[in-house]
Amino acid sequence: MNYAFHPHAEVELNEAIEWYETREPGLGLDFATQVHAAVQRALAFPFAWQEMGSDIRRTLVHRFPYGVLYVAEPDRLLIVAVMHLHRQPDYWHKRTS
Questions:
Q1: What is the pTM of this model?
Q2: What does the alpha-carbon distance between residue 1 and residue 43 come to, in Å, rounded to a whole number?
Q3: Does position 97 have pLDDT exceeding 60, yes or no?
């Protein structure tokens, strides 16, 4: 199975990588690696993670306060958000309509 990022989710990911990298060199890469691992877990077990709403599931990112929200479509995972867990929890809802 393949995956794709919603355009806004891709921007979120890149902004978070940059933010972590400015805090400590190499931390942005660590964050990106952990997000990639979360996506791989979702690909391996797409229906194992917490359901957040109609067909939206969330897998957590290890070491960082982020979750990867996705929809399991027949031929791919659509990454809807790379969301910070302590900020505006419902902002991504408009991306699923």
A1: 0.89
A2: 7
A3: no
